[in-house]
Amino acid sequence: MGSVKDYFSSLGKGVASLVKGLEVTGKEFVTPKITERYPEDRDNMHIAQRFRATLELIYDAEGNHRCIACGTCERNCPNGTITIESKMVDTWDGKKKKKLDRYVYDLGSCTFCQLCVVTCPTNALQFSNDFEQAVFTRSKLVKKLNYLPEKPEPKPTPEQIAKMEAEKQAKIEAAKAAAAAKKAATQGDAAAGRPAAKDPAATDDKAAKALAAAGGDPEKEAKIKAALEKAAKLKAEREAAKAGGDAAK
Ligand code: SF4
Ligand code: SF4
Fold first, then answer.
1. Average of pLDDT values for 196-208?
2. CB contact at 8 A, 82 and 142
3. Is 125 in the pocket of ligand 1 (CB under 6 A)?
């Protein structure tokens, strides 16, 4: 009697286990699939946006990137994966500007830590999620990221040209005025029979040049004037102290 009872008990457990298994199988059967068929369904693959496949420079619609060749990413990369080659170019206003020449990235030694991306001051970098990066030779993993031809330096706008001309003219006028003042002071001393001062127009000359260099910027001019006044005051104090010392002797 006992064996019959055990038999039906075991049978019941087996059927319950079978139902449980079928339940799991049935549930998975109707659950949407998350696996991808590769390479058959290459065009419909879903790759997570956060997946880091390879480093790239961000280009805008006009083909410009934001890299200023500062070298921060190169210095912060723990593996020496990045090499920045830069060059100096002339700008329209006669200044020199550092520009990116070659941005070399070795995918083979990148650990995808993203330090380069987060430390870039101009947000010029990002990781692409294009995972198909397999190649047959390691040398092909070394890439030049600035692959588009560099644009020439922008031409100055008419306003910039006008401003530059005005600044140049102001400097010329200031220099002329300083020279005239120096000449007048020298002639005045000669007429009065006084020995010519050591350099009577030197301060005016410097002040005029400094003010001209401010380019009409009121803020800069105010700073320059304040500095000149301070220097004149210090000079006067020094001379007074010296005169006092001489008198005491
Ligand atoms: S990518 Fe960014 S951090 Fe690297 S050189 Fe260019 S501007 Fe500097
Ligand atoms: S992700 Fe890390 S290892 Fe790769 S280039 Fe950037 S800083 Fe270097």
1. 58
2. no
3. yes
